[in-house]
Amino acid sequence: MSTAGPLDSQFQAGHVPLVGTGLPPGPSGAVDDMGTIDPVLIQQTKNEIRSLVTEITQLCQADIPLAEFYEEYLRRVVSALASHGGAVWSMRDDGSLQLDYQVNLPKAEIVEDEASRHRHGRLLQNVIASGQPTLVPPQSGSSDGEQAGNATDFLLVLACLRVDQETIGVVEIFQRAGGGPTTQRGYLRFLVQMCEHASGFLRNRQLRHLGDRQTLWEQLEGFIRSAHHGLDSKATAYTIVNESRRLIQCDRVSIALRQGKYLKVEAVSGLDTIDRRAAEVQLLGRLATVVAAAGRPLWYTGNNRDLPPQIDEPLHAYVDQSHAKMLAVVPLYPPTTEDETGKTQRTQQAIGALIVEELASSRIDEGMSERVKTVATHSASALANAVEHESLFLMPVWRAIGKAKWIVQARTLPKTIAIAAAVSAAILAIVLIPTDFDLAAKGKLQPAVRREIFAHLDGVVIDVPVGHEQMVHTGDVLARMSNNKLEVEIANLIGRKRTTQERIRSLTRAQYDQRLTIEQQNQMAGELLELEQAAESIDRELALLHEQQERLVLRSEMDGQVVTWSVGDVLLRRPVQRGQILMTVVDPSGNWELELNMPERRMGHLARAVEAGGQLPTVTFTLASHPGQEFEGQVTEIHHVAEVRGEDGNTVLLRVAVDKAALPELRSETTVTARVQCGRRSIGFVVFHELIETIHTKILFWL
Known about the structure:
The chain is about 45% helix and about 25% strand. It contains 17 helices and 28 strands. Helix 7 packs antiparallel against helix 10. It is elongated.
């Protein structure tokens, strides 16, 4: 709409303010000392107003957020009218007024004073009700707060914003007092024209909004159909996140579902599976749990000054990990119910949370927030139905029965009966038919007579004159060791002994000196006695040390064979400690036996078998060197102490006597796999006894 014609005529008459010149309203601002109008100044002012009007026209045709439009629009209108300020008011659904934007609003007269605020509000209500533009002089109207009036020192210029013959708001300009009636009417006409432009923007915005809502409803229809398609909570969660991401128009959507006291992330848009151990997933679950406990949605756009500490900490931790610019966490509640009085009530806790993220922008427009709320409402309903369905007693069983109903149809009924009879017979056989109950154990084959060669003292092995599988006799040297500390002590004692003997010989010779007094002779006799006792003590210590030195030579205690592998390479020049096993000597010509390691958890069955049979059980075993042959033995001893041996954990040692003549090869330390016979039990027990034990210890014990 062009406004150049009316504005030009108004400027020629001097009835509009000179915009941007700093001159007061009216013709005097454009008149020189001779009383003539300055045409250059008028032209400049007209050009500035035309520029502002053009900007307002272009602004009203733009597609921008409403808050940004009001800011730019009101700033230009106030500048064009050279007024003190202005405000844009809109009608709420409940009929009250809402301040959308203001420039230099006179707070003392309109906001802070209650009576003036009521008078001003009544004035705006009257203008909206009448739909007519109005000029209100300063300090006009009744002082009664129930009557409309202007309590400010400014001329109020009021014009309505209308869409489809409906008044939805009003633009208010606080114009400086002064100017004649014609000038004031010019203000009003200009504001009416600008409100027509603004009304066009609001009309176009409403049309775009209706179009967006139409598109939204079409997309929402498809989303609702997909979300309510199944009753599996996990599948429903994946459907929601993938379908709602396109509906909300965001970067990422996630669903967290309740598991006990906490919410766990169940689905993330664009991902088939999620790693629950990932730090980002765990932090998001923690944030969703805290927000759901608070009971209010969280909208984060970078400012968290007003957040409580219990939300601020997990929010910071997740944002630092995910680098999200915008984050919305909306708790999901089951559909509300009505009590006897008709009031809706929510008695259940949140079943989950909808998480919406933007990674590049922190801006939340009105459309996005509305779409998020809509998606959250329908997602809560779909997930609540799925969770309630899954919580039904024995639901997997009923579902399986429902899918298998074809088995009782007429055609398949004979086959069903035959299969059921076969299964029943198999179950009866498993329960009633007995079989051998054997316990598995691992061990080794070795001679019954053997000796472990220990180090009697700490030292270093300096000689190993024997080798693997070498035959030795009683007293043969197996290894020699050295102990530097022992040798030093022996050398010190020998030195002390020599010194003592020299002193004894010296005192003995001195006793025959005739010049000694009786007192000196007695003193020398006493010292000689002490030295002789010291010499005897040194001899005893040397004898003990020589005995220890002899023990550094390790000798065989029996006739037999060395079975330690590469004994020379392993021990030579190696420091060893007292009590350490260096090698083993066995008697291969004597009896042989098995050493079996029976796991402690199986000892109960073995004890009951021994008690029932009255004797130690028989063992069937196979050698690792001959896996295809089986041999038999007899348990001769069961140790009463369980010890940790190898990978089997706590085990009890069983000694088993064998007939060495029946064995194909006698090699010490041969690995053995054995079955210890524990009587006869049902087939089902023999096959599933470990499972039964696990159920008893891990499940039934704790119930």
